[in-house]
Structure formats: structure tokens, C-alpha cells
Amino acid sequence: MALRRLSGFMTLLTTDPKILALALLTGIIPSLLWLWFWLKEDDEYPEPSGLLTIVFIMGMLAVLIVLPIQKFIQTNINSNELELVLWASAEEILKYLAVLLVLYKTHNADKPIDWPIYMITAALGFAALENTLFLVKPFLASDTVVGLLTGQLRFLGSTLLHAVSSGILGIAMGISLHAGNFKKEWHLAVGFIVAIALHSTFNFFIMRNNGGDFLKVFAFLWVVTIIVMLLFEKVRRLSEDY
């Protein structure tokens, strides 16, 4: 998977501008649709659109950093299971760092709901460029149908996965605003563990079955999404005290 994305990135650098535009649009639009959905869940406490745009772009740039890291992991780790966990860990950590770099020494994330919003925004930026890298080759091969079907499947699967896994971490961070210093660190650790576990589990079942039984995997992901939405609502209510 890492090699495929790296190959997609190298192809992206030399591809025809029209193909590039099509791949970017098909990759970014699903992320923007999901971003619109999650922002509607927080319409009482909207964040600055300019800052959200920067976080989204930082999430996209995180892909360029994670690719060589994942290539290194793929080259030096013999265990497929450990490899998947380390890939997921690298992605979740870099999405988190993308948000921290933007919010460092600012007071924009001062309510519990802010953290899942910013984390989801970075995650969807990450997914947007990742989707683009997966779509370049089908479009270059003039296989538009395959490209569009791939985009639709990623809209329902991996794009949502990125949003949900980072949203879990953001929710943990938001809830931690009510906790002391030690409990804040504990919430952050638990958030990372759950996010990485979900991300790794999804990738494991997708790769183990070579795409087979994807309906069962997607059903599991959507159940987790519903749970995250319920937790999101809890964090939104906590924000009413701020």
C-alpha cells in the first residue's frame, strides 16, 4: 500500500495537467463532503474558515512526510501485522502533529468540540491527497470508470476511516480539558491507542481479504462511526459550559 501511494506520487509529478486536475477533484471532493458533514455537527461553535483551510492543507502535506516513513517500515519490518500497526501509527501521529503545528500558541482550541473538529479536518486533508495518489494511475490508463468507482469506495471506506480515527483522538483530547494534567495525558494515550487500533484493524481486514468481504468491514466501520457521532454529541454538550 505504501509503495502504491509512493508510485502514485511519482506519477503525479509528471502526469498530464488535465489528468492531475481530474484526480485531485475526485480525491478532494469526497473529503470536502465529509468535512461539510462534520462541520454541520458543530454549527453552534464554528471555527475560523481560514484556520480550517490551513489545517486541511497541513493534513495533505502530512502525506508527503508519511510516505518515506512507511517505505522505511515496509523495507525493514518482516511482520505484516506489525507493519500495519506502524503504518497506522505514523499516519495518526502525523495528523496530530499537523494540527498542533497550526494551533501552537493560539487560543482557538479552547472548547472540547474544537479538538475533534480540527483533528477531523486534518484527517480529511490527509485522505484527500491519499485518494488522489490512488486515483492517478486509473485515470492515466483512461479507465475513468475504475477511477470513479475507486473514489466512491474510498469515500465510504478509507476517507471515513481517517475522519473517524482522528475524530476519536480529538474527542479524547476534548474530554481531557475537564481533567487534570495526569488525566489529560491518559486521555491522549487512550485516544491514540483506540485510533491506531481502529485504523490497523480496518487495513488488516481489507488487505487480508484483498478487498473481499469489504461490505462486512465497511459495516463495522459505520457502526464505529455512529458511536463516534454519539461521543461527538457528548463533547458538543460539554462545550456549552465554555
Describe the model.
- The chain is globular, with a radius of gyration of 18 Å.
- It has helices at residues 2-14, 17-40, 49-76, 80-103, 114-140, 144-156, 158-175, 181-208, 214-238.
- Helix 3 runs antiparallel to helix 4.
- Mean pLDDT is 80; it is low at 143-152.
- It is an all-alpha fold.
- It has one domain (2-241).
- It is 83% helix and 0% strand.
How many helices does DSSP assign?
9
User: Which residues form runs of ≥5 with pLDDT under 50?
Assistant: 143-152
User: Into which percentage range does the β-strand content fall?
Assistant: under 5%
SSE pattern:
HHHHHHHHH
Q: Helicity level, as a percent range?
A: over 70%
Overall form:
globular
Which class do the helix and strand fractions yield? mainly alpha
Structure summary, number of beta strands: 0
Which whole number gives the mean pLDDT?
A: 80
Domain tally: 1
The protein's oligomeric status is single chain
Major sheet attributes = none
**Separation, N- and C-terminal Cα atoms:** 43 Å
Rg, Å, rounded: 18 Å
Highlighted features:
single chain; 242 residues
Task: Give the arrangement of secondary structure elements.
Elements lengths: L1 H13 L2 H24 L8 H28 L3 H24 L10 H27 L3 H13 L1 H18 L5 H28 L5 H25 L4
Helix pairs in contact: 1-3, 1-5, 2-5, 2-6, 3-4, 3-5, 4-5, 4-8, 5-6, 5-7, 6-7, 7-8, 7-9
Question: What's this, in brief?
Answer:
This protein has 9 helices and no strands. With 242 residues, the chain is mostly helical. It has one domain.
